[in-house]
User: What shape does this take?
Amino acid sequence: MQIIQYLINGISIGAVYAIIALGYTMVYGIAKMLNFAHGDVIMVGAYISFCVTNYLGLPSAVSVVAAVVVCTVLGITIEGLAYKPLRGTPGLAVLITAIGVSYFLQNAAQLIWSSSPKNFTSIVTMDPISLMDGQLVITGEVLLTVCVSVAVMVGLTFFTSKTRTGKAMRAVSEDRDAAQLMGINVNRTISTTFAIGSALAAIAGVLLCSTVPTLMPTTGSMPGIRAFTAAVFGGIGSIPGAMLGGVLLGIIETFSKAYLSTQFSDAIVFSVLIIILLVKPAGLLGKQVQEKV
Amino acid sequence: MNEYSRKMLKVPTYNLLREQDKDKLPVLDVRNLGIDFGGLTAVDSFNITIGPTEISGLIGPNGAGKTTIFNLLTSVYQPTRGSILINGIDTKGMTTHKVNKLGIARTFQNIRLFSDMTALDNVKVGMHNQIKCSFLSSLLHLPGYYKAEKKANEKAMELLDFMGLGDVANQKAGSLPYGVQRRLEIVRALATNPSIILLDEPAAGMNPSETTELMHQIRRIRDTFHIAIFLIEHDMNLVMNVCEAIAVVNYGRIIAKGTPEEIRQNPAVIEAYLGREESNA
Amino acid sequence: MKKYLALLLACLMAVSLFTGCGSSGTTETTAAAAANETAAAGETAAADDTAAAPAIKIGLTGPLTGANSEYGLAVRGGMEIAVAEINALGGLQIEFKAEDDEADGSDKAVSAYNTLKDWGMQIFAGAVTTGSSLAIAAETVNDQIFMLTPSASAVDVAMTGSNVYQMCFTDPNQGASAAELMAEKWPDATIGVIYDSSDAYSTGIRDGFLAKAEELGLNVAVSDASFTADNKADLSTQVTQCKDAGCDLVFLPFYYTEAAQILTYANTIGYKPTFFGCDGMDGILNVEGFDTALAEGLVLMTPFDANATDDATVSFVEQFKANNDGKVPNQFAADGYDVIYALYNACVAAGIDGNTPADEACALLQEQFATMSVDGLTGTGMTWDENGMISKAPAAMVVTDGVYVPMG
Amino acid sequence: MKTKMNTLLKNKNARTNALTYLVVIAAFLVTQYLYSADALSSSVKGYLIPICVYISLAVSLNLLVGICGELSLGHAGFMGIGAFSGIVIAALLKDTIPNDALRLLCAMFGGGILAGAVGFVIGVPVLRLRGDYLAIVTLAFGEILKNIIGNTYAGIDESGFHMAISTTKMPLETGGKYIINGPLGATGIQKIATFPMGFVLVLFTLFVVLNLINSKEGRAIKAVRDNRIAAESVGINVTAFRMKAFVVSAFLAGMAGALFGLNYSSVTASKFNFNTSINILVFVVLGGMGNILGSVISATLLYVLPEALRSLQDYRMILYAIVLIVVMLCTWSPKVKEYLSVIGDKLGGLRKKKEVGSHE
Assistant: This one.
């Protein structure tokens, strides 16, 4: 019974990683950059939702919408001011800028919302489901997170394969120059990607803080790195890969804490990651691209 | 060394197996080579033997599998079937750089120079395994380093001059004209001290006078270094004039083999090319 | 080459630009400090009065930015109140400066300390975190600058030198007192311990606790459920471990931030043991958005209670709230406040003023601290032993109806 | 004509190297003079050794990122290995080698060798990966290392040296002294690092890296970066060269780490985290990839920058972030660069002349 409870715990945090990883993978797949500020956009989303609920007293659904709107605007602004001018330069230049943006967001949040932690009130009001005389507990947050992340995964897959904008994204992802020649507005496509990625970040922020209530200016950074790890784990650029990677990472993390060692769980999780990458160098569901000679 | 580039050599036509190669071990011996890419057979039953100082050509329509064969010969791909012997040694399971050490060097269809480095440095990279200088003496610039570098510089300049590239030695490879880049790739391949070099469309993008010059140079390479040359080329004039033996592939299989004369008359070849081979002449 | 030029220019431009705004930034902080009601006289005015005897320079380093900044900012807030109060008295004046050490245990901490030294600091009232304090303590021993840390609780800090003193409990002692209290109140409980294995404070208490618990024969069922600064996003596994082991008393020797998370999760899965915290737990009732009902029955050993009704505490809490957007002070702020008063009392008693060189002040203060006793927000009759460790009575509190009630 | 050009080129290479050494030596002499004249404040004195350390780290990472073209996000991990092993070595040799400078050298080389060895062990499996996958693996490795060091205990007591990686505190006999104390990190370190030694470290790092770049190994490494397949086709063992660069880089980072560790009386494992790795990477990218002098200058400027912003109190890190973004845009963005060069042209003479003089 224990093992199932740990599994549920793992899936719970894993689904949160997954939804963050989906944002990472979207942006990476299309803009070919590691957006290290993604985790901090998540934090901003959570703060917005917190403020709308706690200060304005509006229902949580409204707060989620507000978070999505603010984060989308924020994402587009960051992209336009900090990343777009660096289009076409080596990936590392954009990476460093993204780190600058990440520092900026964290410190701005500290100045705006102060550094003392806030306890995020879960947007889920459902009572937990208790099975086997309370030996097994499934919380509403788990159900919601899992449902939302699956829905987002399916939605994104559909979006990129069926809609015009989504197809344009895939074209830009495959070959930016060729896409440009085919009349696709690369700049706008990338901006759209950032908008979608940031909207996802807002949702991820709300779900993250519903599961893990502590909200601080640094709330997004560690889960951000974990989720990035998850995205690579599943094969970066692959939408189902991000989902799989996130959930697996959550489960591995929980199981290593439960059955091996809590003190060394970081080391165990990252060792598993390294081993998987050695066996499957492009991640679980990533495509191994054969270099053309 | 500059006299090489000024000497205009006559281009003779040779027979299938050169007199001096007889009774000698072939430099390249390929038996029943094949590769599948996910169920799709790209190359199958490919056999060829090349003598130590032979110039051979590999022709065939686009997509026939010519470059794939070169990639197999240099271990960029591992074959699904068959064996490759270079100087009598089976290359099975070897990596590209090990195969190079056995004596096979190549150029690329889409030029792959180290474009940020000078022409001279490109050649010196090619000479990498010839430069005898320990890692420690490189790190600390011990006297051995200076000796080795000086020797390498001289040898590299010699090779560049041989192909008439001495004047561009210090220019960045990426900034050189197309035809010069192709020749530089050949010099770099020669710098590895090979016993056979594979040229993948050496004349592509060259104008007719450059192509003529290239024909002389290919001949001269063989005569100077006494090595075998195996080339892929669409320019039939070059192939027919330079190669002593030609293999024609289509759909990954050899459809004809022989002297230029035999190939010219082979109905299967004509069919494969739909008469194209004459138009390029 | 062009690139460095651009880089250099950009850097210069940026720096000159920001030093421009810099001055306005600093004024703002001093203005904020002076703006509270009790300090109506204002720092500058007071300083003018005592031109003959310049103000004593007391410095603090702590994390003012980054992940741990809430602790640094709380200590600074508490100290600023004490400084303003003291300066308003009109006697011995204090000039106070806080520098950011980013809670870094090496170069950043030493840089922050050196900046204070260049400023002319006579007494060091930091550092906030254990790591920084360890790095700086050795420097103060070298420089013979008196050091009284408000919140660095590792034994190693005080043991660095005879000039290093602590305002807070040492970790192993706190762990041991927790064990003693448990042995007294819940001798038969099945105990679980969750701790932060990447944090010196948390591991220090846990080690002290386990040693004492073994001595007292307590039943510790879970002793190695831990998390690290990097994986504390998910603490459900640790709670589940305690639940599965049937623990009815769970010891949480870490800060309230993570504790709030644990209480919330335990409540969600319907696990209701008695939770037991240390001084780091103080502040949990004031976490914005935290449902205090979840903390009902929580036992904690804290020297400070923001809801206490004595005048000193009430006035302190009011001022702190006024200065910090209505935030309620925690024990970090209270420790900071007490540090300034302890130093002030000692300085007055020893006749130290702004003209006393730092090393002389250090010797004089050591004499004072060996004998003096201080009453403050975090305890009465506080004294220090020869190692510089404080002796004050840890008060056990139980959270009842959203406030601390001393444990009977 | 040819020989002339050849010598010119040689001179140019040699000139850049000479300039690098010259700048470093001049900076050292000036600082040392000011130091001995007691003209430096304690904070500036405090910056000197960490600046030397970060210069070495930046230059060694530049070998990997700039020259070799491999992104590493775990450089601080090697620094950490160097720091902790250097501290242990220095503590163990305390009685054997009473001379501080000599002991420091031993500790630095020991730290370097251990970091290089770990680099080799990790490199064997990991260097098969490329690009972002290599980056994530180096990140993972850095985290693993931090986790392990945080649970490491080492100490000396009457029965000798003990070391354990354990979740509970390793007991020592009474009177024993911990060198590495779990999450507290290394405490009670005897500080033996000196600025001249820092300078020696920087010179050594420059010497090794610049020599390496200008040797056959350096050419091969650059060739691998430019075109891996072509490099393989001319007989270069790509993995071996990535490995050589990786190990040399780790070795130098380990040396720098040892110097760093021995400059403070306590060091915690959390210092060697992802953020530190990122900071070093920032130095490299801002200084220019493959540009060694650039790394030296940017490490110095960027280390001092947040310190120079101290007067801004709580606002300083946000301004550091803004400066970082602005500088990145100024140095990399084609549009901003164009705009800047227009301004530069307007400024006219002096700058223009400089640019012509140093045109690449």
The radius of gyration of chain C is 22 Å. The domain at 172-302 of chain C is CATH 3.40.50.2300 (Rossmann fold). Chain C has a mean pLDDT of 83. Chain C has 13 helices and 15 strands.
